[in-house]
Please model this.
Amino acid sequence: MPDAQGRMIVDCHTHLMWYPDHVGQQYAEEALASKLIKLKYSGGEAYLANLDLHSYDSKPETHWAVSEPADKVIVFGLQAKAVGPTATRCRA
Model:
């Protein structure tokens, strides 16, 4: 719902995907490496739930919880050869 000034929060680029169902091992390893770099240069301020091959997992129950403050959320399916297996359509 818009606030008193008509503003809304729109999360306009999110994914539902997780290792190993939707991304391959190489992608998961590279994602973990990038997470470690973000942690190093952010002084530990980057989001941190896991420091393993699941570091970029986004499962429906977690996605719903962290998206709650948003008024609208646009969720994209992932289908890119570089990630390995492709995300199937899933309804959360």
